[in-house]
Design a protein that fits this description.
Blueprint lengths: L5 H11 L9 E4 L5 H10 L3 E4 L2 E6 L2 E10 L4 E3 L2 H5 L1 H23 L11 E8 L4 H11 L5 E9 L1 H8 L4 E7 L18 H9 L7 H10 L2
């Protein structure tokens, strides 16, 4: 399966998640790429929109390889590679990524403060999952705030990562389980960078009702 862009993937996810419309879900995007996607879902499902802040911990000399993850409260998810990376590297990487998360929360809170997760149906959205570390950290961070249910919605992910995430979430919706995933962007015609300005715009605009089925048909017709 191949997507035109993140917007098409988001509308396809919205059709899969349509049973949650009317239950006022809280839709959380993983910044930055997934926040505009989360905006589409929040509009389509008549929900609220917020972000969940997690960062992967990067392997020495391999910044694309995750060896773990950390959330904005400082909780660290350890993968097997964390031990091999060395204590000094891990300590510095945690410090660096925690500071990035602090800056992101300060920036996004200028638009709105965090929405309480307690008792809510929470849908965590991302454009794709590689190892699963960041998403597992996101699910655990949300779980700590006592939601009623945690659903993960992604465009693409390998089966191994989906297995990890399904062990943590109440439900996982993935449009394309990809055994050949090398990079999430390989499954999108347009995988342009999402900027902080785009995230702030998605958070700031009033939510509106949309019809995800009609939007998907329109995008495909214009492809």
């Amino acid at each position: 399966m191949h997507f035109l862009n993140r917007s098409e993937a988001a509308h396809l996810l919205a059709t899969r998640l349509f049973p949650y419309r009317g239950q006022h879900p809280l839709v959380l995007g993983v910044p930055r790429g997934a926040v505009p996607m989360a905006r589409v879902l929040a509009d389509a499902l008549d929900g609220d929109l917020d972000v969940v802040l997690v960062r992967k911990l990067r392997a020495p000399g391999q910044p694309e390889l995750a060896i773990g993850a950390v959330d904005e409260h400082g909780t660290v998810l350890c993968d097997s590679g964390l031990v091999r990376a060395g204590e000094a590297h891990v300590r510095e990487e945690i410090r660096r990524q925690t500071e990035v998360l602090r800056q992101k929360r300060e920036l996004y809170s200028g638009v709105r403060g965090p929405i309480d997760r307690a008792g809510r149906i929470v849908i965590i959205v991302d454009d794709g999952i590689a190892t699963g570390s960041s998403m597992v950290a996101a699910v655990r961070a949300v779980r700590a705030r006592a939601p009623r249910q945690v659903i993960v919605a992604v465009a693409v992910a390998p089966p191994s990562a989906l297995l990890r995430v399904r062990a943590e979430a109440d439900e996982v919706v993935c449009l394309h389980p990809a055994r050949d995933l090398m990079a999430v962007g390989q499954f999108f015609d347009d995988f342009s960078e999402v900027t902080d300005a785009m995230v702030l715009d998605a958070l700031a605009r009033p939510l509106v009702h949309t019809d995800p089925t009609r939007r998907v048909a329109t995008q495909r017709a214009g492809a």
